């Protein structure tokens, strides 16, 4: 077998980059992940994301960067790319998570280990990446993360479980509807609607009386998404909710359930 063909087969089998021209670029960008300037670290993570699977040699360095929450202007990556910050900021860790998703399934096990990191920022980024990767191995570990002591991590775990469409998470997400953080409660309601499991209906109906309008609106949407007519009578009073977002979602849900 000729050398180039053998090399290509080995690259495919071992999961190493198949484009020789990208290897020096990957090494250079990996070195920049430890630069003293957070903008340089962010730019390097963004560039590695664009390499996709060819960025696999940078996997360990990207995992290490997940805890880096240094604020950086989103323009560092040339486009808007932030999941959490409304003030046009991103971070090296956020971009590292995106690069790990672009690498694919090889990132799953390192990300699962990161769910137990002492850094809550790293745990949050890992939870998002696991949801974005849509790998069933993440289901049970993410359910455990719903009990994390940091609300931002619990919120991201709830989103990830909804993204995974994980039915085993229904009971834990129902419990999360009572979380002291309204962001966690809202994300749990969204996840239950995304999973589309009728076991959540009674708890979501109770959430229509939540003190936060955002939670009530998300619960209304979730009830419409699940499509169980038991929720119809409970949604009617929501049409007079003081929050216009709740009224809008309740009207949509009632329309769905009335078909």
Structure characterization notes:
The protein is an all-alpha fold and 259 residues long. The protein folds into two domains: 1-133, Alpha Horseshoe (Leucine-rich Repeat Variant); 169-259, Leucine-rich Repeat Variant. Helices cover 61% and strands 2% of the residues. It contains 15 helices and two strands. It has helices spanning 3-14, 22-32, 38-51, 59-65, 92-103, 108-114, 120-133, 139-145, 151-164, 170-176, 182-195, 201-207, 213-226, 232-235, 244-257, and strands at residues 72-73, 89-90. The chain has a two-stranded antiparallel sheet.
Number of domains: 2
The CATH class label of the largest domain is Mainly Alpha
Mean pLDDT: 91
Anisotropy-based shape: elongated
The biggest sheet amounts to: 2 strands, antiparallel
Spatial order of the strands in the main sheet?
A: 1-2
Name the helicity range: 55-70%
In short:
61% of the residues lie in helices and 2% in strands. It has 259 residues and is mainly alpha-helical. The longest helix has 14 residues.
Top keywords for this entry?
259 residues, Leucine-rich Repeat Variant, two-stranded antiparallel sheet, 2 strands, disordered N terminus
SSE order and pairing:
Blueprint: H1 3-14, H2 22-32, H3 38-51, H4 59-65, E1 72-73, E2 89-90, H5 92-103, H6 108-114, H7 120-133, H8 139-145, H9 151-164, H10 170-176, H11 182-195, H12 201-207, H13 213-226, H14 232-235, H15 244-257
Antiparallel strand pairs: 1-2
Helix pairs in contact: 2-3, 3-5, 4-5, 5-7, 6-7, 7-9, 8-9, 9-11, 10-11, 11-13, 12-13, 13-15
């Amino acid at each position: 077998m000729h050398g180039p063909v053998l090399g290509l087969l080995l690259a495919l089998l071992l999961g190493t980059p198949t484009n020789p021209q990208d290897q020096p670029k990957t090494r250079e960008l990996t070195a920049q992940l430890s630069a003293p300037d957070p903008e340089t670290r962010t730019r390097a993570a963004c560039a590695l994301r664009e390499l996709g699977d060819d960025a696999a040699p940078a996997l360990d360095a990207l995992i290490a960067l997940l805890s880096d929450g240094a604020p950086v202007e989103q323009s560092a990556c040339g486009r808007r790319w932030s999941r959490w910050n409304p003030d046009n900021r991103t971070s090296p860790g956020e971009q590292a998570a995106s690069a790990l998703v672009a690498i694919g399934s090889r990132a799953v096990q390192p990300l699962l280990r990161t769910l137990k990191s002492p850094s809550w920022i790293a745990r949050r980024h890992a939870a998002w990446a696991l949801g974005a990767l849509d790998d069933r191995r993440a289901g049970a570990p993410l359910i455990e993360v719903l009990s994390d002591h940091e609300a931002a991590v619990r919120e991201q775990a709830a989103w990830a479980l909804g993204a995974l469409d994980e039915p085993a998470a229904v009971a834990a997400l129902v419990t999360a509807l009572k979380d002291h953080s309204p962001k966690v409660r809202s994300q749990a309601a969204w996840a239950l609607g995304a999973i589309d499991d009728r076991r959540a209906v009674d708890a979501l109906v109770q959430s229509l009386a939540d003190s936060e309008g955002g939670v009530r609106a998300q619960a209304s949407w979730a009830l419409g998404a699940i499509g169980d007519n038991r929720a119809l009578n409970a949604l009617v009073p929501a049409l007079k909710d003081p929050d216009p977002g709740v009224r809008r979602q309740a009207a949509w849900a009632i329309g769905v359930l009335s078909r």
